[in-house]
Structure formats: C-alpha cells, structure tokens
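Lecture notes, unit on protein representations.

Consider one protein chain, 156 amino acids long.
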Amino acid sequence: MATVELRFSAQPEHVRTARLVAAAVARRAGVGEAVLDEVRLAVGEACSRAVGLHRSHGITAPVSVALTEEEKAFSIEVGDSVPDPGADPVESGAPDASGGSGAGPARPGSEADGEGEDEMGLAVISGLVDDVEVRSGAGGGVIRMSWPTADAAVRS
C-alpha cells in the first residue's frame, strides 16, 4: 500500500496544486480515465472546504491530504484541524452526527455564514463520490473518498 502525503498552508491558491497531484497519483494507481475528472473535482471541493474552515476559524495549521493506493481501490483523505465543538476530546476520530455519510453537517456549531457553503461542498462531494465518509472530532475533521482502480473493475 503506497501513500503520498501532502500538507499545504490554508491558502486557496494551493487547492489547484492538490487537485493536480491527486489526479496524477490516481492515474498512476490505476483509476480509470473516465473517473479522473471526478477525482479532481472532489479533491478540489474537499480541499476548498478545509481551507475555508481553517481561514474562518483562524487556524494556521496546514491542510493535510493523504493519497493511498490500495489493492483494489484508491483513496484520498483530506483533513482539517478545526475541532468539532460537540466532540469529546478523548474520541477525536469519532464519526460525525450524520453517521459519517457526508449528508449532514460536519460542524454542528459552525458559524452561520460558512455553514451553507460547508453543506453545499459536502453535497457536491457526495454527488461525485460513491464511497465517501465524513468524520470530525476534537482533533479536526477528515473527508475520506475512495474509487475502485481499473484492475478492480475488471475483476468484478
């Protein structure tokens, strides 16, 4: 299992770089050409969401992206450092109130201005990716997305 890790300061101009790296690693991992646009868009939305959360909460920690090539799938985790206000500090990796589906709000106590954008971004990601999980806790939030590789699609 090969993993590429990326960390960048929460600046909107770095989102494009994350998208390009994600597409290149996804291609190398065997994700089908027809799916690469979905990977680019989903990573762009997830990274833009993380950048927005960092900026609105005054967090200077970097946004993290982990791109992992597994045997039959390619997965991407985009992490932010914004703690969930309702999270128990002991359970920093617990699924969010939506059950981890990405359909509900990831930050129940987030500011009203960014809440609509946050939900819209999650809706876009859920529409692009069949396998998506959203978690948030005291240590921050993670959006995990995965796609089958071309080899896995042929074997199915």
